[in-house]
Amino acid sequence: MNEKTAHIPERIKELREILEISAIDMAKDTGISYEVYCKYENGEQDIPISALYTIAGKLNTDVTVLLTGDEARMDSAAVCRKGKGVQIERYPGYEFSSLAYNFKHRTMEPLLVLLDSSKPQAALVSHSGQEFNYVIEGQMKVVVAKTEHILNAGDSIYFDARLPHGQSAVNGAAQFLTIIQE
Q: Could you write out the three-class secondary structure of the chain?
């Protein structure tokens, strides 16, 4: 776990305890096995972004609180300057930058993602909602269900995020914008 994400498990545990929710109930209510939930909360296992949203929902807070320790403040517009998004590294080979972290009550999550083909490919994931990926630079492979799509800069894909999916860079690095609507 890197320095930027090291405090996330502590924040989750603290909020859970403030709300007087047991770890067993938290696991049950979020659909995460108790063993895995405990590993998340103890910092023994990285927490997938989809699980962060589920946990934030159960804690009745914005995912920004879990990521940064601060409340989102903007409710009409939130500007994110180049290079100033909240950095998240949740899977090997993926570096996420949250672009709307300071907007309250988001209904979608725009993330800038950098992929590195020299790092191990992450396992396929699935989560509620829909997802949009737009390739900014490089070439990437997107797997949705069992179908592979090769996308180049300027290409995009929109899919049902409940289907197992994953992205990987092809020959070096790739950068893409993903918008996730839960």
A: CCCCCCCHHHHHHHHHHHCCCCHHHHHHHHCCCHHHHHHHHCCCCCCCHHHHHHHHHHCCCCHHHHHHCCCCCECCCCCCCCCCCEEECCCCCEEEEECCCCECCCCCEEEEEEEECCCCCCCCECCCCEEEEEEEECEEEEEECCEEEEEECCCEEEEECCCCEEEEECCCEEEEEEEEEC
Query: What one-letter code names the amino acid at 72?
Result: A
Answer whether 157's CB lies under 8 Å from 148's CB: no
Percent of the chain with pLDDT over 70: 95
Residues in Cβ contact with 60 at an 8 Å cutoff, skipping those fewer than 6 apart: 19
pLDDT in tens, 107-117: 898 999 999 88
CB proximity list for 132: less than 8 A, separation 6 or greater: 156, 157, 158, 178, 179, 180
Question: What confidence tens digit (pLDDT) does each residue in 54-101 have?
Answer: 899 899 998 888 888 888 788 889 898 998 888 776 666 788 888 998
